[in-house]
Design a protein that fits this description.
- The structure holds 2 protein chains of 2 kinds.
- Chain A has helices at 2-18, 22-36, 52-56, 65-76, 91-99, 143-146, 158-169, 191-202, and one strand at residues 37-38.
- Chain A is mainly alpha-helical.
- Chain A folds into 2 domains: 1-36, no CATH class; 83-209, Orthogonal Bundle (Cytochrome Bc1 Complex, Chain D, domain 2).
- The termini of chain A are far apart.
- By secondary structure, chain B is mainly α.
- Chain B has 2 domains: 2-43; 47-273, Cytochrome c-like domain (Cytochrome Bc1 Complex, Chain D, domain 2, Orthogonal Bundle), CATH 1.10.760.
- Chain B has helices spanning 2-18, 29-43, 49-61, 103-113, 119-124, 130-144, 158-171, 182-186, 227-237, 248-260, and strands at residues 92-94, 99-101, 191-193, 196-198, 216-218, 223-225, 242-243, 270-272.
- In chain B, helix 3 crosses helix 6.
- The longest helix of chain B is centred in the N-terminal third of the chain and has 17 residues, at 2-18.
- Classes of the chains: A mainly alpha, B mainly alpha.
- At the A-B interface, helix 2, strand 1 and helix 3 of A face helix 2, helix 7, helix 8, strand 3 and helix 9 of B.
- Strand 1 (37-38) of chain A pairs antiparallel with strand 7 (242-243) of chain B.
Chain lengths: 210, 273
């Protein structure tokens, strides 16, 4: 009985090592991820829990058009628009946030948005005077100027102002597998911080638009 | 050697002092760029990893631990005691532990079986402390004996193939508050974070780049980092929870990156900014 049991186990083990289906490997990878991490400081294990958007964008191949559309619609519904239509803050504060790449790691004491940077320069060119910029995202130099924004409060600028807020709040609403974090949705930045970054990009007085 | 290192330290200190200022100093973008290029060139002159290599060789040959034994009988994949070329074929499957192991996890096994150390206890020890420092020095020396060789991880054993598949899935696994996976930064060639070039690790990124460059001495932190530590800090910046030292996900990622780097020439232990 015991020998038969062990033989059966050995057979199962041998079979599983040889012919793994993609689905079995997916399950094994999930188990492996959960077994390989522990919580540290503010970085708890729930960070491994994937929402639909994260799960659908966890392969080398992007999801199907239908899945992409579904994710974008669901993410769009999460966007909170700013109180009293106040979209634009202080570009100087926005520049500080854009420079600041800190926050949300296990060596950070607090996960409060006020403690986080917006880390824009990590991936984007913004003010041309800053030569230390990343290239994962597109250049944002002259962001407002190129889009013809001369007054962000003008109804003519409303569409681009609204789009920019939405993109900062939840980038996945416009591109399901965007590399950009969902700053509002994931509570990385608060409303005022997003306003300040908005000003950096859209205020005609911002160095970005000179 | 010593004066070279002192000169190097002075240069590194002045260069690291100027680099962060780039963000706040508006004009003269040319001189800032020149300064960075100069700093990078100076890094190539002397590599403090040599000190760790020497320490690692000593530790390999010194009788230590509860069993008062050396590591000279340790099998790194090419037979007991064979160090030359072993690193270019790791991680690989080991029949005695029935596991795919990377260099660091294999060292833990040898330190336990030959010297009587507690592998789990070392794995739980913070980097640079106690026997973790031993593992780092050993990794520096062992990798140096594969310098100039081409990465050639075996993929014959079913467990090695399975580890590659699991590593690929770990590489693309998005999570955390910023939705990052390894692929967010390392899935495309020619990208940067700030001024830091990012290798595309989904394919062979070239000689001495990515997997073929670690362990490495990090000038910015003044520390020697093994691949396990490199991955640990990647996950920190990915805003993930803390990866266990020598955990299955880290080893599988090593297989994925190492197999992808097949044919790339190793420069480990390298020197990094």
């Amino acid at each position: 009985m015991q020998i038969r049991h062990l033989t059966a186990l050995a057979l199962i083990a041998a079979a599983s090592a040889h012919a793994q289906t993609a689905k079995q490997l997916d399950q094994q990878a999930d188990t492996m991820m959960r077994a390989s991490f522990r919580e540290q400081g503010i970085a708890k294990l729930d960070r491994l829990n994937q929402d639909d958007a994260q799960k659908a964008c966890s392969q080398a191949k992007p999801p199907s058009a239908a899945v992409t559309k579904k994710i974008e619609a669901a993410q769009m519904a999460t966007i909170k628009w700013p109180a009293e239509g106040q979209y634009i803050g202080d570009w100087k504060e926005g520049e500080k946030l854009a420079q600041n790449g800190r926050g949300m790691t296990w060596t950070d004491a607090s996960a409060a948005p006020a403690k986080n940077g917006a880390m824009c320069y990590n991936c984007h060119q913004i003010d041309k005077k800053e030569i230390s910029f990343g290239t994962i995202g597109p250049s944002l130099w002259n962001y407002g100027k190129l889009r013809g924004v001369t007054d962000p409060a003008d109804p003519a600028a409303a569409a681009i102002v609204k789009y920019t807020w939405g993109k900062l709040y939840n980038s996945k609403a416009y591109s399901a597998c965007s590399n950009m974090p969902r700053f509002g949705h994931a509570e990385l930045l608060n409303e005022q911080q997003i306003r300040d970054v908005m000003a950096l990009l859209l205020d005609p007085k911002s160095p970005v638009n000179q | 050697m010593r004066s070279r290192l002192i000169a190097f330290a002075a240069i590194a200190a002045s260069a690291t002092a100027t680099v962060p200022l780039v963000a706040q100093t508006p004009p003269q973008p040319k001189s800032a760029a020149d300064g960075i290029a100069e700093y990078r060139k100076m890094l190539e002159d002397g590599n403090p990893a040599e000190l760790f290599e020497a320490k690692g060789e000593d530790l390999w040959k010194t009788a230590r631990g509860p069993k008062n034994a050396t590591l000279e009988a340790c099998d790194l994949g090419l037979g007991p005691g064979v160090v030359k070329g072993a690193w270019a074929q790791l991680p690989r499957y080991f029949p005695d532990t029935k596991k795919v192991q990377d260099l660091e996890s294999r060292l833990l096994s040898c330190m336990q079986s030959l010297q009587g150390f507690d592998a789990a206890e070392i794995a739980a020890t913070p980097f640079d402390k106690g026997e973790q420092a031993t593992v780092t020095a050993l990794a520096a020396w062992i990798s140096s004996l594969s310098r100039g060789m081409k990465m050639a991880l075996p993929q014959k054993h079913p467990e090695e193939k399975r580890a590659y598949e699991l590593g690929k899935r770990a590489f693309f696994y998005r999570g955390g508050p910023m939705d990052f996976s390894c692929a967010s930064c390392h899935g495309e060639a020619g990208k940067r974070i700030r001024l830091q070039d990012l290798p595309d690790l989904t394919k062979n990124p070239g000689d001495g780049v990515g997997f073929a460059a670690w362990p490495a001495y990090r000038v910015s932190s003044g520390e020697m980092w093994s691949m396990q530590r490199r991955l640990n800090d990647c996950f920190r910046q990915q805003r993930f929870p803390y990866p266990g030292f020598a955990s299955d996900a880290t080893i599988a990622l090593g297989v994925y990156m190492g197999v992808n780097a097949k044919g790339a020439e190793s420069i480990a232990p390298a020197i990094k900014r």
